[in-house]
Amino acid sequence: EDQVTQSPEALRLQEGESSSLNCSYTVSGLRGLFWYRQDPGKGPEFLFTLYSAGEEKEKERLKATLTKKESFLHITAPKPEDSATYLCAGSFSGGGADGLTFGKGTHLIIQP
Amino acid sequence: AAGVIQSPRHLIKEKRETATLKCYPIPRHDTVYWYQQGPGQDPQFLISFYEKMQSDKGSIPDRFSAQQFSDYHSELNMSSLELGDSALYFCASSLRAYEQYFGPGTRLTVT
């Protein structure tokens, strides 16, 4: 069974305190690894897609990286507006428009 | 930029009633996905359509059905509603099988 596991479940940081969120996944058949941000009661907002080990992508204070077993979302000098749940999801080999398998998410709180 | 549109945004139904949720994908996107997200849960994949044909199927109950129409919009039909069906229902769209962009969701409450 395809699995995506995120850690930690929750993280509280001070404004400006950098950190990383972890996402480990079932290795076989991964077609793509996705990161989303979700605010309460809203739809997940697309952040990054990573397709191969060694790939990195950046957007403002966020940087996503992918290894053969896991992905990291690095948050540099976060601000209170970065508070949200960050979801990691995998697309596994299915030959078509595969549904994503999501992790449970990391609930991030940035305190001023 | 245009986003995924879902309607209605909120829906209240009683047990055993039926509900129809609608999704309008981003223009030129040819693939639609449906997800269910219960309180405090991660989104669970239900079903997807590519070029109006069912493509992938997840944990969709037999009481639910969906289709994609010629204009690429999609509808999720839910019958014999149960209390446990109360959730946020998201539609996402993509161009072929690339990044999925989610809509704002429909909050379904079954009483």
Mind explaining what this structure looks like?
The complex is a heterodimer of chains A (112) and B (111). Chain A is mainly β. Helix content of chain A is 0%, strand content 56%. Chain A has no helices and 11 strands. In chain A, strand 9 (84-92) and strand 10 (101-102) form a beta hairpin. The mean pLDDT of chain A is 94. Chain B has 111 residues and is an all-beta fold. In chain B, strands 2, 4, 5, 6, 9, 10 and 11 form a 7-stranded mixed sheet that branches. A 4-stranded antiparallel sheet of chain B has the order 1-3-8-7, with no helix packed on it. The interface between A and B is medium-sized, with 23 and 31 residues.
The biggest beta sheet of chain A is recorded as:
6 strands, mixed
Cα-based radius of gyration of chain A, to the nearest Å: 14 Å
Mean pLDDT of chain A: 94
Instruction: Give the number of DSSP strands of chain B.
Output: 11
Q: From the helix content, strand content and strand pairing of chain A, which structural class follows?
A: mainly beta
Largest interface: A-B, 23 and 31 residues
User: How large is the radius of gyration of chain B?
Assistant: 13 Å
Strand content of chain A: over 45%
Strand count, sense and barrel status of the largest sheet of chain B are:
7 strands, mixed
Low-confidence stretches of chain A: none
- The assigned structural class of chain B equals mainly beta
Total count of helical runs of at least 4 residues of chain B: 0
In terms of per-residue confidence, which ranges of chain B show pLDDT below 50 for 5 or more consecutive residues? Answer: none
Oligomer: heterodimer
Total number of β-strand segments of chain A?
Answer: 11
Question: How confident is the prediction overall: mean pLDDT of chain B?
Answer: 95
The proportion of residues in beta strands of chain B is over 45%
